[in-house]
Write a structure and sequence with these properties.
Number of helices: 16
Structural class: alpha+beta
Distance between the termini: 91 Å
Helix content: 25-40%
Number of strands: 18
Shape: elongated
Strand order of the largest sheet: 2-1-4-3-5-6-7
């Protein structure tokens, strides 16, 4: 194990990517004494990623006592310290040792800061307790490929954030590194190889692509499926349990939209939902869960400069600027997008396309000459436009762009209950509807009555009305007599 391990330790000598300093302080476990130390400032450390075994629990209050050595799973702590010492590191961070699970504020801090802590670690040791050390991870049905560690929600950040990741089997035999096994890890997780090899490029992937990496992952608490994504998008949420995954995920999307204009956040689909489902009303233009992005791993965002030039070339009016702004009313977004009328709704083109993008040294660029744009269908509600046909994510070819024009529309986002803002919006919609009827329908009523009289003289209308009333009376009377016979 040591021979294989030290062959890759040389890679640790390369400096990690530029990272922000840790805010505040953190507890680190001294790899020599196995005692907790309250560290202020920056210290090199290793970090452990693992799935908790049955019976394993928090050791924070017992660290430094003799009894902790007999606790289930503590051998992982000892082996992690041993590996850190071999790599010349004095400290390690382990979730069940360095964070007090009984403290609500500490739990929140861990969920908010975990991505940064894994990102700033010199090395991440990943322990796979369900993988044998003598197997070949490259085999099609290897235990490595089927390890439950890959299905955890928190695995996403623990795999992507660190530059150097080492995989160990249940007997602590080294399986390989993230760099060595990047092809296998990419196939198992669906994560793009560039994101695994170059963590600094992760922010360059579209929102839809990054969301797709969370598909099929599980967590003990539903909300953690969302909190595990915060670091991936560099946003923070207050950690609250009991709200449910959908409400928490809507909050996450609203925070993401505050820091980016990436329209791929609207490029989702849901095979389970229909345009008449309650999910459509609850989420508006936004998805209700990260699973809605499961098939969006190839969605590419179009940078704003490229998108502006593209709109000026293909859509009218030429002087209009495509934009996406947060509405001050906090009940939606005001957007200027290419749209076309279809039925009672709208087809809307987004600034994103499907297919492979090319890295140009600073961002991923999609070739728009050979590809169409992603199109979503919207239907109008009293709060604005919302998604319909959620199971569909269409692509419109360049030849069909002439049917679209740039238009300002209001997109409703996450407001699902009738709060004060929604009530006011509903009243405004109702008043506008009444005014529309008064101004467009009432003036034509006299003409309609005159036309009706011309075709049906008054005595004919009187006969038709009496005939209608007589038939309705006979029908209702028959039903009444039938009910009486049934009751008697």
């Amino acid at each position: 194990m040591c021979a294989r391990f030290h062959q890759v330790v040389a890679s640790l000598l390369t400096p990690p990517i530029k990272r922000q300093l840790l805010s505040g302080h953190m507890y680190l476990l001294n790899a020599h004494t196995e005692q907790l130390e309250d560290i202020h400032g920056k210290r090199p450390y290793a970090i452990l990623s693992h799935a908790w075994a049955v019976g394993e629990r928090d050791y924070f209050q017992k660290i430094g006592t003799k009894s902790v050595r007999t606790e289930p799973g503590y051998e992982k702590v000892q082996m992690c310290c041993r590996l850190a010492r071999q790599d010349g590191l004095d400290y390690v961070w382990i979730d069940n040792c360095c964070a007090d699970a009984n403290s609500r504020s500490t739990r929140s801090e861990v969920r908010i800061s975990a991505y940064a802590w894994f990102q700033q670690a010199q090395v991440c040791y990943t322990y796979l307790g369900d993988v044998d050390g003598n197997e070949n991870p490259r085999e099609t049905h290897s235990q490595f490929r089927r390890s439950k560690w890959f299905g955890r929600s928190w695995t996403l950040q623990e795999l992507l954030a660190p530059k150097h990741v080492f995989f160990f089997a249940k007997d602590w035999t080294m399986i390989g590194t993230k760099a060595d096994l990047v092809d296998i890890v990419s196939k198992v997780t669906g994560i793009h190889k560039d994101a695994l090899e170059y963590p600094e490029r992760i922010p360059c992937f579209s929102i839809a692509t990054r969301m797709s990496w969370a598909r099929g992952r599980t967590s003990t608490k539903d909300e953690d499926r969302v909190y595990a994504l915060m670091g991936l998008f560099d946003v923070n949420l207050p950690v609250v349990y009991g709200e449910g995954e959908t409400k928490t995920f809507l909050k996450l999307q609203n925070e993401i939209m505050k820091v980016t204009d990436d329209q791929s956040i609207f490029a989702w689909r849901s095979a389970a939902a229909t345009s008449f489902s309650s999910k459509s009303d609850a989420s508006g233009i936004l998805a209700s869960t990260s699973e809605c992005f499961a098939e969006c791993g190839d969605v590419q965002n179009i940078p704003y400069d490229q998108w502006s030039e593209y709109c000026a070339e293909h859509f009218r009016p030429k002087k209009a600027n495509p934009q996406l702004d947060v509405d001050p009313s906090c009940i939606g977004l005001q957007a200027t997008l290419p749209v076309r009328q279809r039925g009672v709704g709208l087809d809307v083109l987004l600034a994103c396309a499907r297919g492979r993008a090319v890295w140009n040294g600073s961002e991923y660029i999609a070739d728009l000459k050979k590809r169409g744009l992603i199109c979503i269908h919207l239907q109008q509600s009293y709060r604005g436009y919302k998604r319909s046909h959620e199971s569909r994510l269409e692509t419109v070819a360049v030849d069909d762009f002439r049917k679209f024009s740039l238009q300002g529309i209001h997109l409703c986002t996450s407001q699902s209950s009738l709060d004060l803002g929604n009530v006011l919006a509903y009243l405004e919609w109702l008043v506008n509807g009444i005014l529309y009827i008064i101004s467009n329908v009432v003036p034509y009523v006299p003409n309609f009555l005159r036309l009706l009289y011309d075709f049906f003289p008054f005595y004919q209308l009187w006969l038709i009305t009496n005939w209608f009333v007589l038939n309705v009376t006979l029908m209702l009377g028959g039903e009444w007599r039938g009910m009486r016979r049934k009751n008697h």
